[in-house]
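Q: Sequence in, structure out?
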Amino acid sequence: MKINKYVRTEIDRYASANFYDNFDGAFPILDIGDLYNAYDRLDEIGNIDLVVGGFPCQSFSLSGRMGGIYNDHKNRGIIIFEICKVIKELRKANPDLKILLENVAMKKSIMAELTDLISDAMGQRIEPVKLNSADVSAQNRQRIYWTNIKGFSIPKLNVRFGDIMETDCDEIYDLSEAHKNRVLNAKRGKGYFYTKDSEKIGTINALYGKNPTDGSFVEDIKLNQVGVASNIKGLESIKRVYDRDGKMSTLTTSQGGHRVPKVAIGAFRGRYNEDGSTSQQLEIRTDHKTNTLTTVQKDNVPINLDNLRWRKISVLEAERMQTVSDGTTEFGIFKDDKDYDPTLTHAYQRKKLSNTQRYKMLGNGFTIKMISAILQPIINEKGLNILSFCDGMGGTAHAVQECINNQVFLDEVG
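A: Exactly. Output:
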């Protein structure tokens, strides 16, 4: 199976640069830039088998303005009209056109409006399906999908946050004390902290690189001995350095100095995430007391504060949350740069992308294993002509590549 033609729309130059770093030369690409160019270039686009689009969510999101299609001061909601107009034209050439459109959880009234528009464009009723990336990843990410692809099955992969957590995360991700307190105490937009024991972590969003207070963050505990501190005088037992997978040193009767581990009490509590789902989150007491003693171990969790890190999700963890390979978003090839030289090899064209841009493209993107599971039934030997609206970092291409890899594996073991 292969991609015969890949037509894409995207206006984020950093996301596009990353797309070209991963896929330049892999298959024929027609990049038409702004989505509003698509209708005027239908002759150039030609026959299409599959339309995929994760159109802008700000007008619809439960955590956003919820203004609907028309009440968005940046006119992002009305993009759906352009997408539907193109789909309606493409169906004239290919009545068997397949579509997969995605957006966030939203009010039922807004969802009904979108469903009517998409159904009209397709000439058949396309009912929305709500799916959660938690089935295939460590992330709670509920999304609405409109598709006429039949027979797909979403696997239950049972991936926990601890399975994708970095074991030695760079200090650049650590939160300041002030930022930590803002996250914990914000009157609106309160964030949450997760640990390696959390079943899932909250959704990664496009603005995560701008240090929000309402995002998902990590309580990272280092308790297993990995070395000895050389700047503390005294017994060897007080010089031990630990990581998260071990236990704190034995409490002694000594007082003062460096001799007593700093301990607080926390508890795992079920809390609602931004998408309405629930997950277990570690909440630490700040009043120096313990919780009520119960028969449930999770109600009193001792924490060594000397070894507790409050940090952001790392970019590597964000990649794993969206089920792309480690380092996928690290580089870009900027074909719109003045110094771009198509005669140079791939390696000489690559430029490192900032973490802010990497978070943005991941937050705006698909959970790849979810999209590939939906697309799997239409993967065939003759290949596909694809139109990917709001293509970003090339989530559709990544998903199709995942399908191909899965098929190769099944063929080898079958």
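The longest helix spans residues 395-413.
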